[in-house]
Structures
1.
Amino acid sequence: MNTKITLLLLFLLIGLVAFGQKIPKDKKQLIASVESHKEELISISDQIWANAEIAFQETESSKLLADYAEANGFIVERGVADIPTAFIATYGEGKPVISVLGEFDALPGISQKAQPTKEPLEAGAAGHGCGHNLFGTASLGAAIAVKEMIEAGKIKGTVKFIGTPAEEKFFGKLWMLEAGVWDDVDVNVSWHPSADTKADVQSSLAMVDFIVEFKGQAAHAAADPWNGRSASDALELYTTGINYYREHIKPTVRIHYHIQDGGQVVNVVPDYSKLWVRVRNTDTKGMLPVFEQVKKMAEGAAIMANVDYKYSLVSGIRETLVNRTGGAVMQENLELLGPLEYTEEEIAFGKKIQEMTDKPQVGMDSKIYPFEETRENPGGGSTDVGDVSWNVPNINLGVTVAPKDTPWHSWAVVACGGMSIGHKGMVMASKAMSMTMYDLFEDAKLVEEVKTEFKERKGDDVYKAMIPDGPPPIGN
Ligand SMILES: [Zn+2]
C-alpha cells in the first residue's frame, strides 16, 4: 500500500479510537474524586508500606484504612469474623450491594527501602512484596468515589469496602466467608498489583496448607543412639517420599514444603520435627487426590522411623471463578483511562531494578493489554479471592505497579510500592474499579448478566471453606 494512504488510514483510525473513547461526565467525576483524595491515599499507602505488618497482625494498617473510611462517612464494623483486623465499611442502602475488597498484609523478611538497589528499611523486618499497601488503599479510594456518587444522588444502592487480612498466610477471607460477610453482596470487585495492566480473566491455583509433626524419643547421638527414635529421620524420609512422588503427578501440580523444625543440635537424636506442606493444582477437584496421597505418606515415614506423627490442616483455598461479563466492563474502563505514563526518573528506576534482578532493561510495561481468552491452565499463584469468587461474582483487575519481569514477593516489588511507580498504579486501579462499580450501580441488567455467568460457572457447588474447627489462628 502507498505510504501516504497507510498514514491517512492510521490517522483516521487514531481519530476514531480517540472519539470513541470520550469519557462520560459521571465517570469524569469519579476520576476527579479519586484525584481529589490522591494525596491522602498516597499517604495512607506509604504508612501501610512502612508499617509492613504480617498476617493477622495488621493492627495499624487496618486502622488507617478503617479510620479513613469512617472519616469519609462510611459506617465501619471492626473485628469482623473474630478477626481483630478485619472490617467492613458500608455506605448507602438498598440494592444493588457492590463490594470492593482490600488486602493490607506484608511478607516477612523482605524489608526494603524505596530505592532500586537492595537495602532493607529495617533489617529482618517485613516488606510489602505483593503490593498490598497499594491494594487496600486503591480499593478504598474506589469505594469513596462511588460513595460520593451515591451521596450526590447519581446512583442508588450500597457500597461496601471489605478489609480482608492475612492473604499471604492463613487466608483470612475463609473465616470471613464462613461468617457470611459477602452474603448480601451482588457483585464484588477486586484488583491486584502487577507488572502489567489488564482486566484479569484468568483463574488462580487451588491449594491446601497443612502441618506434619513427628514425635520420637531423644537420646545422646553417640553414647546411646539405640535409645533414640529420630523425628528428623522421619522428616527426611517424608520429604524424600514427596520428591519421588513428583514423577507421578500431573505437570499442573505444585508441592512445596518448609522445614520449620528439624532438631536443635547435632549431638541429640531429635525427638521433634515439623514441616509446613502445600499442595496446589489448577482446580480443587484435581488438587484433592494429590493432597490425600501426600497426607497419607506422613504415616509411612512415621512407621519407617518408628515415631508418632500428627497432621493438622491450616487452610485450603479454591481456584478463582472468572467472570468475563464483568471483566469486559473493567476492560472498557481501562481503555477509557488509557495507559499510565512515566517520567524519565521512573523509567530509570525501573531499569535499575531490572539490572539488579538480571532482567532485560526494558523499563515499564504500561500498555493496556487486549481482553484475553480465559486459559484452561493459567499457572501462577493462589489467592483467597478465589473463595470469594465461589460465593459472589467477582470482577478482577491487574495494574502495573512495578517494571516488567520484576520478581514478585521480593525486595524489588517493595521498592516500587513505596514510590511514585506504585502510587500511579494504585491511583489508576482506584479509578478503573470505581468506574466499573458505577457501571454496576447504573445498569441493573449488567448485574443480572454478571450473576447469570457466575451461576453457570458455579453449577451446583455448595461452598464450604477449607478451615479447621475453632477460631481463626490469630497470633500464630
Ligand atoms: Zn498479593
2.
Amino acid sequence: MKLSSKRKSFTILIPAYILLFLAMSCQKDSSVDLTEASEIVAEEVSNKPKSYPGVEEELWAYFELFEVAAAAQGLSIDLTAEGITGIIEDLEEDQVAGQCTSYSHAANHVTIDTDFWNRASDNFKEMIIFHELGHCYLDRGHREGQLESGNCISIMRSGIEPCRDAYSNLNKAYYIQELFNPGSVNVN
Ligand SMILES: [Zn+2]
C-alpha cells in the first residue's frame, strides 16, 4: 500500500455529476471513489493486478473490484475458486447490458454486451458487472423499488420498473452495502 499511489487516485475531487459527465472520456479517474470504503478498493486494485482464468481480460479489474468491495463489507469472496467465467460479446436482446447464465454442473457465466461495453462509463460497467455477479455469485434475484430521491433502491433492479440508476461516486458506498448486505438497508 503505497501512499503515493493513494494520493494520486484522489487528485480529482469534483462533484459526482461532473465525474459522470467526464466518465466517457476519462476512463482512469472515473472509477475513483470519494468514500472511505472505495478508497481501499481503488488502492488495493491499483497495487495488485489479479488474473481470472476463463474471464476476458478487460473484465478482470471489475471482478477484482467486486472481491475487494465484498471484503470491505466483511465478506471473503474468491471468484477464481468459484470458477465463474466471463466474456464480452453481442447479446441479441435489445437493451440488455449483461447476463448471468447458471449451470447446474458447471460454474456460472457472465456475459457483457459488446455495444454496452463500448459506450458505458467505468461506473456503469462496474454496476452492470456487480449486478451480474450479484446473480451469478451472490445468488440474488432482482430488487425493485426506489428511494425517496427516485434513485433505485438496489443495483439489482431489473430495469423494467421505473427508478433512476445512480451508481455514482457519491452513492456507491450505499449501493455496495445494499448489494452484499441487503438486509442492512432499511427502505419502505
Ligand atoms: Zn438481473
